[in-house]
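Dock zinc ion; give full complex structure.
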Amino acid sequence: MDCKEVNKMIPDFLENKLDHRELRKFMEHIFRCEDCKEELCIQFLVLEGMARLETGSTFDLQHELDKILEDARRKMRIRRIFHYFIYGIEVLAIILIVSIAVWMMM
Ligand SMILES: [Zn+2]
């Protein structure tokens, strides 16, 4: 995934519209690429800043963006653990089936 693609995905990321695969690629790039991280930061500040101007509330937006990135990272970590968990169950199921098959043949 190159910077141009990542830049196009930024609005979708901010609106939480990326699917898991897109999100993973997006995050991998964002953490590697300072340019795109900066672009994400700018777009977030503009988007949220506008909304905040209307409501008149001011927050630490940079801190909030960090939180969003951290949440996305955590979401991916949970997903990965879940995958290993499913994989483990599959392996156990196969072992069980093979054991039963062997047991029935005896
Ligand atoms: Zn980039």
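Observed: The radius of gyration is 21 Å.
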